Amino acid sequence: MSIHKSEIKKITTHQLQAMKDRGEKISMLTAYDYSMASLVDEAGIDIILVGDSASNVMAGHETTLPITLDQMIYHASSVVRAVKRAFVAVDIPFGSYQGNSSEALRSAIRIMKESGAHSVKMEGGAEIKESVTRILSAGVPVMGHLGLTPQSIYKFGTYSVRAKEEEEADKLIEDAKLLEACGCYAIVLEKIPAELAKRVSEEINIPTIGIGAGPHVDGQVLVIHDMLGITTEFKPRFLRQYADLSTTIKDAVTNYVKDVKAKDFPNEKESY
């Protein structure tokens, strides 16, 4: 049983800001279904991200681009029903906010109304300022996302580290300050140099959540399937694998198949 249940009430944007202010690191993981979200929440995670990475780990797509708004709402609804403590953020998927701010607002409102989530997350800086501002004006909290932005993979052409050059680094800092000024409550920094992430974290007042951004950010996020070793083909430098569930699950299924074939399952005690 998690010690957090009796100690901490439901996480809010106010509490996340307080964590940064007192130097407490913020923990964040993805989840996409009721059962996994329930376990992650009970273990004491601060933020659950219903990421568009569901396109990869749940649906088997090569990129995050194919997942739809309806599918994201389905996953988010499943997660929200499981959560008692964690703050739930949901990615607005590709094609659901880039067109114009009216479309972005409609997408954000659908996510909030139909899933019961607590906030949305959007990739980009100055180029999505109008959409961010309009969503925030409707009372919907927004988490930003800078650095490697997977929805723009075909623009970048690679998943390598971003903002290594001065010009791109300067723009990232400007974008972070812009998102803060707009009213974002936090920003994910993905796959950027650790020193740049440190500088951003020091120069803005809202929390920064890193993935491949070094130790000097205000929190960390990983994809749950990568962290638990369910997916085995994705092993970037920033990933620390905390379990080997791929082996555990395959061994369990192998033993089940063996017992069924051998007529050992179910036995007398397992029958009515």
Write the layout of secondary structure elements.
Blueprint: H1 4-7, H2 13-22, E1 26-30, H3 34-42, E2 47-50, H4 54-57, H5 69-82, E3 87-91, H6 101-115, E4 119-121, H7 129-137, E5 142-147, H8 153-156, H9 166-182, E6 186-190, H10 194-203, E7 208-211, E8 219-222, H11 224-227, H12 245-261
Question: What's a quick, concise take on this entry?
Answer:
With 272 residues, the protein is an alpha/beta fold.
Largest sheet: 8 strands, parallel, barrel
Strand content: 5-15%
Topology, number of strands = 8
Q: How do the SSEs run, as a string of H and E?
A: HHEHEHHEHEHEHHEHEEHH
Structural class: alpha/beta
Could you say which overall geometry the principal axes of the C-alpha atoms support?
A: globular
Distance between the termini: 33 Å
Side by side, the strands of the main sheet go: 1-2-3-4-5-6-7-8
**Uncertain residue ranges:** 1-6
Instruction: Supply the number of helical segments.
Output: 12
Helix content: 40-55%
Radius of gyration based on Cα positions: 20 Å
Mean pLDDT across all amino acids: 94
Question: What does it look like?
Answer:
With 272 residues, the protein is an alpha/beta fold. The chain is 43% helix and 13% strand. The chain has twelve helices and eight strands. The protein has helices spanning 4-7, 13-22, 34-42, 54-57, 69-82, 101-115, 129-137, 153-156, 166-182, 194-203, 224-227, 245-261; strands spanning 26-30, 47-50, 87-91, 119-121, 142-147, 186-190, 208-211, 219-222. Strands 1-2-3-4-5-6-7-8 form an eight-stranded parallel barrel, surrounded by seven helices. It is globular. Mean pLDDT is 94; it is low at 1-6.
